[in-house]
TrEMBL record:
This is MFS general substrate transporter. Residues 1-21 are annotated as: Disordered. The chain crosses the membrane at residues 36-54, 107-124, 136-153, 165-184, 196-218, 230-251, 263-280, 301-322, 342-360, 367-386, 392-414, 507-526. It comes from Corynespora cassiicola Philippines. It is a multi-pass membrane protein. Keywords: Glycoprotein, Membrane, Transmembrane, Transmembrane helix, Transport.
Amino acid sequence: MESSSSIKEIPHMPPSRFSDDAQDSRVEAQIDKHSWQFWLVFCSLCLLAFAAALEGSVVTAALPTVAQTLGPESSVDRVWITNSFMLAHTVVQPPIAQLCDIFGRRTLLVTIALFAIGSGIAGGSNDTATFITGRIVQGLGSGGIYMLVDLVVCDLVPLRDRGKYLGIVLSSTAFGTTLGPMVAVELADVNWRLTFYVSLPASGVALVVSWFFLDITYEKLGWREALRKIDWIGNTLFIASIASILCGLASGGIINPWNSNRILLPLTLGVAGWIAFHLFEASPWCHEPSVPYRIFASRTSFVGFILAFIAAMVLQWTLNFLPVYFQGVKATSPLMSGVNTLPYNAMLVPSTILAGIVMSKFGAYSLFQSVGFALMAIGVGLLSILDSDSHTALWTVFQLVVAVGQGLAATTILPAIQTALYSLDVASVTGMYAFARSLGLVLGVRIPTLILDAFFVKNVHHISNAELRGKLDGVISYADVNKIFSMDLSAKTKLEVTSVYEVSLQMVWRIAIAFAVLGFIISFGVRRLDLGEERSPEIRLGEKHGNENSVRYNGYEV
Protein backbone atom coordinates (compact mmCIF):
# COMPACT_ATOMS: atom_id res chain seq x y z
CA MET A 1 0.00 0.00 0.00
CA GLU A 2 1.31 3.42 -0.92
CA SER A 3 1.57 5.79 2.00
CA SER A 4 0.11 9.23 1.97
CA SER A 5 3.61 10.68 2.26
CA SER A 6 4.58 9.09 -1.05
CA ILE A 7 1.67 10.82 -2.74
CA LYS A 8 2.82 14.17 -1.46
CA GLU A 9 6.14 13.70 -3.21
CA ILE A 10 4.47 14.66 -6.50
CA PRO A 11 6.17 17.94 -7.45
CA HIS A 12 4.56 21.35 -7.62
CA MET A 13 1.34 20.30 -5.90
CA PRO A 14 -0.37 23.13 -4.06
CA PRO A 15 -1.85 22.19 -0.70
CA SER A 16 -5.56 22.00 -0.15
CA ARG A 17 -7.10 25.24 1.00
CA PHE A 18 -9.50 23.46 3.31
CA SER A 19 -7.64 23.57 6.58
CA ASP A 20 -10.28 22.67 9.15
CA ASP A 21 -13.26 20.42 9.69
CA ALA A 22 -15.72 23.30 9.73
CA GLN A 23 -14.94 24.17 6.14
CA ASP A 24 -15.17 20.52 5.10
CA SER A 25 -18.58 20.24 6.74
CA ARG A 26 -19.83 23.32 4.95
CA VAL A 27 -18.65 21.90 1.64
CA GLU A 28 -20.45 18.65 2.40
CA ALA A 29 -23.61 20.62 3.14
CA GLN A 30 -23.42 22.56 -0.12
CA ILE A 31 -23.72 19.50 -2.33
CA ASP A 32 -26.36 16.97 -1.46
CA LYS A 33 -25.92 14.05 -3.82
CA HIS A 34 -29.29 12.64 -2.77
CA SER A 35 -31.30 15.74 -3.64
CA TRP A 36 -33.76 15.66 -6.51
CA GLN A 37 -31.61 18.22 -8.31
CA PHE A 38 -28.71 15.81 -8.22
CA TRP A 39 -30.72 12.95 -9.68
CA LEU A 40 -32.21 15.21 -12.35
CA VAL A 41 -28.75 16.41 -13.39
CA PHE A 42 -27.22 12.95 -13.18
CA CYS A 43 -29.94 11.31 -15.27
CA SER A 44 -29.63 14.03 -17.90
CA LEU A 45 -25.86 13.43 -18.04
CA CYS A 46 -26.42 9.70 -18.54
CA LEU A 47 -28.91 10.46 -21.31
CA LEU A 48 -26.36 12.77 -22.90
CA ALA A 49 -23.61 10.13 -22.68
CA PHE A 50 -25.97 7.61 -24.28
CA ALA A 51 -26.82 9.99 -27.15
CA ALA A 52 -23.16 10.85 -27.83
CA ALA A 53 -22.20 7.16 -27.88
CA LEU A 54 -25.15 6.34 -30.11
CA GLU A 55 -24.10 8.95 -32.68
CA GLY A 56 -20.54 7.68 -32.60
CA SER A 57 -21.57 4.22 -33.77
CA VAL A 58 -24.36 4.80 -36.31
CA VAL A 59 -22.52 5.92 -39.41
CA THR A 60 -21.11 2.57 -40.61
CA ALA A 61 -24.53 0.89 -40.56
CA ALA A 62 -26.24 3.92 -42.12
CA LEU A 63 -23.55 4.51 -44.77
CA PRO A 64 -25.15 2.58 -47.68
CA THR A 65 -28.40 4.53 -47.33
CA VAL A 66 -26.63 7.83 -46.76
CA ALA A 67 -24.56 7.30 -49.91
CA GLN A 68 -27.73 6.99 -52.02
CA THR A 69 -28.62 10.59 -51.11
CA LEU A 70 -25.17 12.16 -51.01
CA GLY A 71 -24.01 10.61 -54.26
CA PRO A 72 -21.30 8.13 -55.24
CA GLU A 73 -18.59 7.81 -52.60
CA SER A 74 -14.88 7.82 -53.34
CA SER A 75 -12.32 6.21 -51.04
CA VAL A 76 -11.51 9.68 -49.69
CA ASP A 77 -15.17 10.41 -48.97
CA ARG A 78 -15.60 7.09 -47.24
CA VAL A 79 -12.60 7.65 -44.94
CA TRP A 80 -13.84 11.06 -43.84
CA ILE A 81 -17.50 10.08 -43.55
CA THR A 82 -16.61 7.22 -41.22
CA ASN A 83 -13.71 8.81 -39.29
CA SER A 84 -14.32 12.58 -39.09
CA PHE A 85 -16.50 12.23 -35.98
CA MET A 86 -13.95 10.29 -33.90
CA LEU A 87 -11.03 12.43 -35.08
CA ALA A 88 -12.73 15.62 -33.87
CA HIS A 89 -13.97 13.80 -30.75
CA THR A 90 -10.46 12.74 -29.70
CA VAL A 91 -8.32 15.84 -30.31
CA VAL A 92 -10.28 18.31 -28.17
CA GLN A 93 -10.42 16.67 -24.74
CA PRO A 94 -7.32 17.96 -22.87
CA PRO A 95 -7.79 21.48 -24.34
CA ILE A 96 -11.44 21.52 -23.24
CA ALA A 97 -10.37 20.32 -19.78
CA GLN A 98 -8.19 23.41 -19.46
CA LEU A 99 -11.03 25.65 -20.62
CA CYS A 100 -13.15 24.16 -17.83
CA ASP A 101 -10.61 25.34 -15.26
CA ILE A 102 -10.50 28.82 -16.79
CA PHE A 103 -14.13 29.45 -17.70
CA GLY A 104 -15.84 27.03 -15.33
CA ARG A 105 -18.04 24.03 -16.07
CA ARG A 106 -20.31 26.18 -18.23
CA THR A 107 -18.20 24.75 -21.04
CA LEU A 108 -20.59 21.79 -20.84
CA LEU A 109 -23.36 23.94 -22.28
CA VAL A 110 -21.16 24.87 -25.24
CA THR A 111 -20.30 21.25 -26.00
CA ILE A 112 -23.96 20.21 -25.85
CA ALA A 113 -24.83 23.01 -28.26
CA LEU A 114 -22.04 21.96 -30.64
CA PHE A 115 -23.22 18.37 -30.53
CA ALA A 116 -26.80 19.37 -31.31
CA ILE A 117 -25.79 21.76 -34.11
CA GLY A 118 -23.56 19.12 -35.69
CA SER A 119 -26.38 16.56 -35.50
CA GLY A 120 -28.68 18.97 -37.29
CA ILE A 121 -26.12 19.75 -40.00
CA ALA A 122 -25.38 16.07 -40.65
CA GLY A 123 -29.05 15.12 -40.69
CA GLY A 124 -29.98 17.96 -43.01
CA SER A 125 -27.06 17.61 -45.45
CA ASN A 126 -27.52 17.02 -49.16
CA ASP A 127 -23.88 16.61 -50.14
CA THR A 128 -20.82 14.87 -48.76
CA ALA A 129 -18.94 18.03 -47.74
CA THR A 130 -21.84 19.30 -45.63
CA PHE A 131 -22.31 15.89 -44.06
CA ILE A 132 -18.64 15.64 -43.10
CA THR A 133 -18.74 19.19 -41.70
CA GLY A 134 -21.73 18.24 -39.56
CA ARG A 135 -19.97 15.14 -38.29
CA ILE A 136 -16.87 17.17 -37.37
CA VAL A 137 -18.94 19.70 -35.40
CA GLN A 138 -20.87 16.84 -33.81
CA GLY A 139 -17.58 15.13 -32.89
CA LEU A 140 -16.21 18.28 -31.27
CA GLY A 141 -19.31 18.44 -29.08
CA SER A 142 -19.19 14.73 -28.36
CA GLY A 143 -15.54 14.89 -27.30
CA GLY A 144 -16.36 17.62 -24.82
CA ILE A 145 -19.41 15.74 -23.56
CA TYR A 146 -17.40 12.54 -23.16
CA MET A 147 -14.94 14.29 -20.85
CA LEU A 148 -17.29 16.73 -19.11
CA VAL A 149 -19.88 14.15 -18.08
CA ASP A 150 -17.20 12.33 -16.10
CA LEU A 151 -15.84 15.62 -14.76
CA VAL A 152 -19.20 16.90 -13.56
CA VAL A 153 -19.93 13.57 -11.86
CA CYS A 154 -16.54 13.78 -10.13
CA ASP A 155 -17.38 17.32 -9.02
CA LEU A 156 -20.72 16.29 -7.57
CA VAL A 157 -19.70 13.04 -5.89
CA PRO A 158 -16.99 12.37 -3.27
CA LEU A 159 -14.07 10.24 -4.39
CA ARG A 160 -15.12 7.05 -2.61
CA ASP A 161 -18.58 7.09 -4.22
CA ARG A 162 -17.51 7.99 -7.75
CA GLY A 163 -17.11 4.42 -8.93
CA LYS A 164 -20.79 3.51 -8.75
CA TYR A 165 -21.93 6.69 -10.52
CA LEU A 166 -19.22 6.46 -13.16
CA GLY A 167 -20.26 2.84 -13.66
CA ILE A 168 -23.77 3.96 -14.54
CA VAL A 169 -22.38 6.55 -16.96
CA LEU A 170 -20.14 3.94 -18.60
CA SER A 171 -23.10 1.60 -18.89
CA SER A 172 -25.06 4.32 -20.67
CA THR A 173 -22.15 4.85 -23.06
CA ALA A 174 -21.72 1.14 -23.79
CA PHE A 175 -25.46 0.70 -24.33
CA GLY A 176 -25.51 3.60 -26.78
CA THR A 177 -22.52 2.24 -28.69
CA THR A 178 -24.15 -1.17 -29.04
CA LEU A 179 -27.60 0.12 -29.89
CA GLY A 180 -26.27 2.57 -32.52
CA PRO A 181 -25.94 0.15 -35.46
CA MET A 182 -29.36 -1.39 -34.78
CA VAL A 183 -30.98 2.05 -34.61
CA ALA A 184 -29.21 3.07 -37.82
CA VAL A 185 -30.42 -0.01 -39.70
CA GLU A 186 -34.02 0.44 -38.60
CA LEU A 187 -34.21 4.21 -39.09
CA ALA A 188 -32.39 4.08 -42.42
CA ASP A 189 -35.31 2.12 -43.86
CA VAL A 190 -37.62 4.98 -42.85
CA ASN A 191 -35.37 8.03 -43.33
CA TRP A 192 -31.62 8.01 -42.72
CA ARG A 193 -31.76 11.61 -41.48
CA LEU A 194 -33.59 10.41 -38.37
CA THR A 195 -30.40 8.58 -37.42
CA PHE A 196 -28.82 11.95 -36.66
CA TYR A 197 -31.92 13.82 -35.53
CA VAL A 198 -32.66 11.19 -32.87
CA SER A 199 -30.05 12.69 -30.52
CA LEU A 200 -31.57 16.18 -30.61
CA PRO A 201 -34.22 15.59 -27.89
CA ALA A 202 -31.58 14.23 -25.50
CA SER A 203 -29.37 17.23 -26.21
CA GLY A 204 -32.28 19.58 -25.56
CA VAL A 205 -33.17 17.95 -22.25
CA ALA A 206 -29.55 17.97 -21.05
CA LEU A 207 -29.08 21.59 -22.10
CA VAL A 208 -32.18 22.78 -20.24
CA VAL A 209 -31.43 20.77 -17.10
CA SER A 210 -27.80 21.91 -17.02
CA TRP A 211 -28.77 25.54 -17.58
CA PHE A 212 -31.34 25.69 -14.78
CA PHE A 213 -30.11 23.14 -12.21
CA LEU A 214 -26.33 23.10 -12.52
CA ASP A 215 -25.48 26.32 -10.71
CA ILE A 216 -21.88 26.82 -11.73
CA THR A 217 -19.85 29.24 -9.66
CA TYR A 218 -16.28 30.13 -10.50
CA GLU A 219 -13.88 33.01 -10.20
CA LYS A 220 -14.53 35.07 -13.30
CA LEU A 221 -11.44 36.47 -14.93
CA GLY A 222 -11.09 39.36 -17.32
CA TRP A 223 -10.81 38.31 -20.93
CA ARG A 224 -7.15 39.27 -21.15
CA GLU A 225 -6.23 37.29 -18.06
CA ALA A 226 -8.35 34.32 -19.16
CA LEU A 227 -6.74 34.27 -22.60
CA ARG A 228 -3.29 34.44 -21.01
CA LYS A 229 -4.08 31.31 -19.00
CA ILE A 230 -4.78 29.25 -22.14
CA ASP A 231 -1.94 27.01 -23.21
CA TRP A 232 -1.95 28.21 -26.82
CA ILE A 233 1.29 26.56 -27.92
CA GLY A 234 0.66 23.30 -26.09
CA ASN A 235 -2.93 22.95 -27.28
CA THR A 236 -1.93 23.72 -30.87
CA LEU A 237 0.82 21.10 -30.74
CA PHE A 238 -1.54 18.56 -29.22
CA ILE A 239 -4.42 19.05 -31.66
CA ALA A 240 -2.14 19.18 -34.73
CA SER A 241 -0.09 16.12 -33.76
CA ILE A 242 -3.00 13.89 -32.75
CA ALA A 243 -5.00 14.93 -35.83
CA SER A 244 -1.98 14.11 -38.00
CA ILE A 245 -1.60 10.66 -36.43
CA LEU A 246 -5.30 9.85 -36.72
CA CYS A 247 -5.46 11.03 -40.34
CA GLY A 248 -2.54 8.76 -41.21
CA LEU A 249 -4.11 5.79 -39.41
CA ALA A 250 -7.50 6.36 -41.03
CA SER A 251 -6.11 6.73 -44.57
CA GLY A 252 -3.47 4.01 -44.51
CA GLY A 253 -4.28 1.08 -46.73
CA ILE A 254 -7.45 2.75 -48.06
CA ILE A 255 -6.57 6.02 -49.78
CA ASN A 256 -2.85 5.29 -50.04
CA PRO A 257 -0.67 2.26 -49.24
CA TRP A 258 1.06 2.20 -45.87
CA ASN A 259 4.49 2.76 -47.41
CA SER A 260 3.31 5.91 -49.20
CA ASN A 261 4.84 9.24 -48.17
CA ARG A 262 1.29 10.56 -47.82
CA ILE A 263 0.80 8.13 -44.95
CA LEU A 264 4.29 7.99 -43.45
CA LEU A 265 4.72 11.77 -43.36
CA PRO A 266 1.64 12.61 -41.23
CA LEU A 267 2.35 9.65 -38.94
CA THR A 268 5.98 10.72 -38.46
CA LEU A 269 5.14 14.39 -37.98
CA GLY A 270 2.31 13.48 -35.62
CA VAL A 271 4.50 11.32 -33.37
CA ALA A 272 7.23 13.98 -33.37
CA GLY A 273 4.66 16.67 -32.54
CA TRP A 274 3.21 14.59 -29.72
CA ILE A 275 6.67 14.14 -28.19
CA ALA A 276 7.32 17.88 -28.60
CA PHE A 277 4.00 18.60 -26.86
CA HIS A 278 4.94 16.63 -23.74
CA LEU A 279 8.43 18.14 -23.66
CA PHE A 280 6.95 21.61 -23.88
CA GLU A 281 4.35 20.90 -21.16
CA ALA A 282 7.14 19.83 -18.78
CA SER A 283 9.40 22.76 -19.65
CA PRO A 284 9.75 26.05 -17.73
CA TRP A 285 8.51 27.90 -20.83
CA CYS A 286 4.99 26.51 -20.35
CA HIS A 287 3.43 28.53 -17.52
CA GLU A 288 -0.14 27.17 -17.82
CA PRO A 289 0.12 23.57 -19.11
CA SER A 290 -3.10 21.94 -20.30
CA VAL A 291 -1.58 18.57 -19.37
CA PRO A 292 0.69 19.24 -16.36
CA TYR A 293 3.58 16.83 -16.07
CA ARG A 294 2.76 16.24 -12.40
CA ILE A 295 -0.31 14.13 -13.27
CA PHE A 296 2.09 11.46 -14.60
CA ALA A 297 4.46 11.66 -11.63
CA SER A 298 2.62 9.03 -9.60
CA ARG A 299 3.13 5.43 -10.74
CA THR A 300 -0.53 4.71 -10.06
CA SER A 301 -1.79 7.53 -12.25
CA PHE A 302 0.68 6.77 -15.06
CA VAL A 303 -0.31 3.09 -15.13
CA GLY A 304 -3.96 4.10 -14.82
CA PHE A 305 -3.86 6.11 -18.05
CA ILE A 306 -2.38 3.11 -19.87
CA LEU A 307 -5.04 0.82 -18.41
CA ALA A 308 -7.76 3.25 -19.52
CA PHE A 309 -6.39 3.09 -23.07
CA ILE A 310 -6.20 -0.72 -23.13
CA ALA A 311 -9.61 -1.22 -21.49
CA ALA A 312 -11.29 1.11 -24.00
CA MET A 313 -9.51 -0.56 -26.91
CA VAL A 314 -10.57 -4.09 -25.91
CA LEU A 315 -14.10 -2.83 -25.21
CA GLN A 316 -14.38 -1.28 -28.68
CA TRP A 317 -12.73 -4.35 -30.20
CA THR A 318 -15.45 -6.53 -28.71
CA LEU A 319 -18.37 -4.20 -29.41
CA ASN A 320 -17.47 -3.90 -33.09
CA PHE A 321 -16.35 -7.42 -33.94
CA LEU A 322 -18.94 -9.52 -32.17
CA PRO A 323 -21.47 -8.32 -34.81
CA VAL A 324 -18.95 -9.23 -37.54
CA TYR A 325 -18.87 -12.77 -36.17
CA PHE A 326 -22.63 -13.07 -36.29
CA GLN A 327 -22.95 -11.47 -39.74
CA GLY A 328 -19.82 -12.94 -41.36
CA VAL A 329 -19.69 -16.40 -39.78
CA LYS A 330 -23.27 -17.02 -38.66
CA ALA A 331 -24.65 -15.14 -41.72
CA THR A 332 -27.29 -13.25 -39.71
CA SER A 333 -28.77 -9.85 -40.58
CA PRO A 334 -27.37 -6.66 -38.99
CA LEU A 335 -30.46 -6.45 -36.79
CA MET A 336 -30.16 -10.05 -35.59
CA SER A 337 -26.45 -9.64 -34.97
CA GLY A 338 -27.38 -6.80 -32.62
CA VAL A 339 -29.92 -9.03 -30.89
CA ASN A 340 -27.30 -11.77 -30.52
CA THR A 341 -24.96 -9.39 -28.68
CA LEU A 342 -27.60 -8.58 -26.07
CA PRO A 343 -26.10 -11.06 -23.55
CA TYR A 344 -22.87 -9.07 -23.68
CA ASN A 345 -24.64 -5.80 -23.02
CA ALA A 346 -26.99 -7.31 -20.46
CA MET A 347 -23.96 -8.37 -18.40
CA LEU A 348 -21.76 -5.32 -19.09
CA VAL A 349 -24.25 -2.88 -17.58
CA PRO A 350 -24.76 -4.56 -14.17
CA SER A 351 -21.08 -5.56 -13.86
CA THR A 352 -19.91 -1.95 -14.27
CA ILE A 353 -22.44 -0.73 -11.72
CA LEU A 354 -21.72 -3.57 -9.28
CA ALA A 355 -17.97 -2.97 -9.52
CA GLY A 356 -18.51 0.69 -8.70
CA ILE A 357 -20.73 -0.10 -5.73
CA VAL A 358 -18.33 -2.65 -4.23
CA MET A 359 -15.34 -0.37 -4.86
CA SER A 360 -17.15 2.48 -3.09
CA LYS A 361 -17.80 0.25 -0.08
CA PHE A 362 -14.46 -1.55 0.22
CA GLY A 363 -12.07 0.52 -1.94
CA ALA A 364 -10.87 -2.61 -3.78
CA TYR A 365 -10.13 -1.01 -7.14
CA SER A 366 -6.72 -2.66 -7.75
CA LEU A 367 -8.18 -6.15 -7.29
CA PHE A 368 -11.04 -5.40 -9.69
CA GLN A 369 -8.60 -4.16 -12.32
CA SER A 370 -6.44 -7.28 -12.19
CA VAL A 371 -9.41 -9.65 -12.16
CA GLY A 372 -11.12 -7.63 -14.87
CA PHE A 373 -8.20 -7.80 -17.29
CA ALA A 374 -7.72 -11.50 -16.54
CA LEU A 375 -11.36 -12.18 -17.44
CA MET A 376 -10.96 -10.04 -20.58
CA ALA A 377 -8.02 -12.18 -21.69
CA ILE A 378 -9.92 -15.39 -20.97
CA GLY A 379 -13.07 -14.10 -22.64
CA VAL A 380 -11.52 -12.96 -25.92
CA GLY A 381 -9.51 -16.19 -25.91
CA LEU A 382 -12.77 -18.10 -25.76
CA LEU A 383 -14.20 -15.98 -28.59
CA SER A 384 -11.27 -17.06 -30.76
CA ILE A 385 -12.51 -20.68 -30.82
CA LEU A 386 -16.00 -19.81 -32.09
CA ASP A 387 -16.92 -21.09 -35.54
CA SER A 388 -20.00 -21.39 -37.72
CA ASP A 389 -21.20 -24.45 -35.77
CA SER A 390 -20.84 -22.98 -32.28
CA HIS A 391 -23.96 -23.47 -30.19
CA THR A 392 -25.98 -20.53 -28.89
CA ALA A 393 -25.18 -21.42 -25.27
CA LEU A 394 -21.47 -21.34 -26.06
CA TRP A 395 -21.27 -17.88 -27.61
CA THR A 396 -23.66 -16.54 -24.97
CA VAL A 397 -21.45 -17.67 -22.07
CA PHE A 398 -18.30 -16.41 -23.80
CA GLN A 399 -19.84 -12.95 -24.16
CA LEU A 400 -20.74 -12.92 -20.48
CA VAL A 401 -17.14 -13.63 -19.45
CA VAL A 402 -15.78 -10.75 -21.56
CA ALA A 403 -18.49 -8.37 -20.35
CA VAL A 404 -17.84 -9.07 -16.66
CA GLY A 405 -14.12 -8.48 -17.14
CA GLN A 406 -14.63 -5.20 -18.96
CA GLY A 407 -17.19 -4.02 -16.44
CA LEU A 408 -14.93 -4.73 -13.46
CA ALA A 409 -11.92 -2.96 -14.96
CA ALA A 410 -13.42 0.07 -16.69
CA THR A 411 -15.35 1.49 -13.74
CA THR A 412 -12.44 1.48 -11.31
CA ILE A 413 -9.70 3.18 -13.36
CA LEU A 414 -10.57 6.89 -13.08
CA PRO A 415 -11.15 6.84 -9.28
CA ALA A 416 -7.83 5.02 -8.88
CA ILE A 417 -6.01 7.71 -10.87
CA GLN A 418 -7.69 10.48 -8.91
CA THR A 419 -6.84 8.80 -5.62
CA ALA A 420 -3.14 9.17 -6.40
CA LEU A 421 -3.39 12.88 -7.22
CA TYR A 422 -4.69 16.05 -5.63
CA SER A 423 -8.20 17.16 -6.51
CA LEU A 424 -6.87 20.49 -7.81
CA ASP A 425 -5.98 18.69 -11.05
CA VAL A 426 -9.31 16.91 -11.44
CA ALA A 427 -10.05 18.59 -14.81
CA SER A 428 -6.60 17.88 -16.28
CA VAL A 429 -6.70 14.29 -15.01
CA THR A 430 -10.20 13.69 -16.36
CA GLY A 431 -9.26 15.27 -19.70
CA MET A 432 -6.23 13.02 -20.07
CA TYR A 433 -8.24 9.99 -18.99
CA ALA A 434 -10.92 10.80 -21.57
CA PHE A 435 -8.25 11.20 -24.26
CA ALA A 436 -6.63 7.86 -23.37
CA ARG A 437 -10.02 6.16 -23.63
CA SER A 438 -10.89 7.92 -26.87
CA LEU A 439 -7.57 6.95 -28.44
CA GLY A 440 -8.26 3.39 -27.31
CA LEU A 441 -11.70 3.51 -28.93
CA VAL A 442 -10.17 4.67 -32.23
CA LEU A 443 -7.47 2.01 -32.27
CA GLY A 444 -9.97 -0.57 -31.01
CA VAL A 445 -11.58 -0.35 -34.44
CA ARG A 446 -8.58 0.41 -36.65
CA ILE A 447 -6.19 -2.31 -35.43
CA PRO A 448 -8.62 -5.25 -35.66
CA THR A 449 -9.92 -3.93 -38.99
CA LEU A 450 -6.38 -4.05 -40.41
CA ILE A 451 -5.92 -7.56 -39.01
CA LEU A 452 -9.23 -8.78 -40.40
CA ASP A 453 -8.59 -7.27 -43.82
CA ALA A 454 -5.07 -8.71 -43.99
CA PHE A 455 -6.18 -12.25 -43.16
CA PHE A 456 -9.30 -11.93 -45.31
CA VAL A 457 -7.12 -11.13 -48.32
CA LYS A 458 -4.69 -13.89 -47.36
CA ASN A 459 -7.48 -16.50 -47.30
CA VAL A 460 -9.74 -15.19 -50.07
CA HIS A 461 -8.26 -17.76 -52.48
CA HIS A 462 -10.38 -20.36 -50.68
CA ILE A 463 -13.41 -18.84 -52.43
CA SER A 464 -13.79 -20.82 -55.66
CA ASN A 465 -15.98 -18.23 -57.43
CA ALA A 466 -13.46 -16.15 -59.43
CA GLU A 467 -16.04 -13.48 -60.23
CA LEU A 468 -16.79 -12.95 -56.54
CA ARG A 469 -13.07 -12.78 -55.71
CA GLY A 470 -12.82 -9.95 -58.23
CA LYS A 471 -15.73 -8.12 -56.64
CA LEU A 472 -14.13 -8.49 -53.22
CA ASP A 473 -11.02 -6.64 -54.38
CA GLY A 474 -11.04 -3.35 -52.45
CA VAL A 475 -13.94 -4.38 -50.23
CA ILE A 476 -13.35 -3.69 -46.52
CA SER A 477 -14.15 -6.98 -44.83
CA TYR A 478 -15.23 -5.30 -41.57
CA ALA A 479 -17.46 -2.51 -42.86
CA ASP A 480 -18.80 -4.36 -45.91
CA VAL A 481 -19.76 -7.67 -44.35
CA ASN A 482 -23.48 -7.04 -44.90
CA LYS A 483 -22.78 -5.85 -48.47
CA ILE A 484 -20.97 -9.10 -49.24
CA PHE A 485 -23.78 -11.31 -47.98
CA SER A 486 -26.41 -9.25 -49.79
CA MET A 487 -24.90 -10.49 -53.08
CA ASP A 488 -26.55 -13.37 -54.92
CA LEU A 489 -24.38 -16.19 -53.59
CA SER A 490 -24.82 -19.92 -53.97
CA ALA A 491 -24.90 -22.08 -50.85
CA LYS A 492 -21.40 -23.36 -51.59
CA THR A 493 -19.97 -19.87 -52.11
CA LYS A 494 -21.67 -18.53 -48.98
CA LEU A 495 -20.11 -21.36 -46.97
CA GLU A 496 -16.68 -20.51 -48.40
CA VAL A 497 -17.09 -16.84 -47.50
CA THR A 498 -18.12 -17.68 -43.93
CA SER A 499 -15.07 -19.94 -43.66
CA VAL A 500 -12.79 -17.06 -44.68
CA TYR A 501 -14.42 -14.81 -42.11
CA GLU A 502 -14.15 -17.54 -39.48
CA VAL A 503 -10.40 -18.01 -39.92
CA SER A 504 -9.75 -14.26 -40.14
CA LEU A 505 -11.80 -13.43 -37.04
CA GLN A 506 -10.05 -16.07 -34.99
CA MET A 507 -6.78 -14.24 -35.58
CA VAL A 508 -8.46 -10.93 -34.63
CA TRP A 509 -9.45 -12.36 -31.25
CA ARG A 510 -6.04 -13.95 -30.66
CA ILE A 511 -4.28 -10.63 -31.01
CA ALA A 512 -6.84 -9.06 -28.66
CA ILE A 513 -5.67 -11.57 -26.04
CA ALA A 514 -2.20 -9.98 -26.10
CA PHE A 515 -3.57 -6.53 -25.24
CA ALA A 516 -5.76 -7.91 -22.43
CA VAL A 517 -2.79 -9.84 -20.99
CA LEU A 518 -0.67 -6.67 -21.16
CA GLY A 519 -3.35 -4.86 -19.17
CA PHE A 520 -3.40 -7.66 -16.61
CA ILE A 521 0.38 -7.52 -16.14
CA ILE A 522 0.68 -3.76 -15.74
CA SER A 523 -2.40 -3.59 -13.50
CA PHE A 524 -0.11 -4.78 -10.70
CA GLY A 525 1.64 -1.44 -10.98
CA VAL A 526 -1.43 0.26 -9.48
CA ARG A 527 -0.90 0.81 -5.77
CA ARG A 528 -3.69 0.33 -3.29
CA LEU A 529 -4.48 3.75 -1.81
CA ASP A 530 -7.27 4.80 0.50
CA LEU A 531 -10.21 6.33 -1.30
CA GLY A 532 -10.59 9.66 0.47
CA GLU A 533 -13.63 11.84 0.81
CA GLU A 534 -12.21 14.87 -0.96
CA ARG A 535 -14.42 16.80 -3.36
CA SER A 536 -13.67 19.14 -6.16
CA PRO A 537 -16.60 21.39 -5.31
CA GLU A 538 -16.86 23.72 -8.28
CA ILE A 539 -20.51 22.83 -8.89
CA ARG A 540 -23.47 23.51 -6.62
CA LEU A 541 -27.05 22.49 -7.19
CA GLY A 542 -30.01 24.81 -6.92
CA GLU A 543 -28.23 27.71 -5.20
CA LYS A 544 -27.60 31.32 -6.10
CA HIS A 545 -24.18 32.83 -6.57
CA GLY A 546 -22.57 34.77 -3.76
CA ASN A 547 -23.89 32.76 -0.84
CA GLU A 548 -22.64 34.51 2.28
CA ASN A 549 -21.87 31.17 3.91
CA SER A 550 -19.77 29.92 1.02
CA VAL A 551 -16.04 29.30 1.11
CA ARG A 552 -13.47 29.51 -1.66
CA TYR A 553 -11.42 26.65 -3.01
CA ASN A 554 -8.90 26.93 -5.83
CA GLY A 555 -10.61 30.07 -7.11
CA TYR A 556 -14.10 28.57 -6.93
CA GLU A 557 -16.88 29.52 -4.55
CA VAL A 558 -18.66 26.61 -2.92
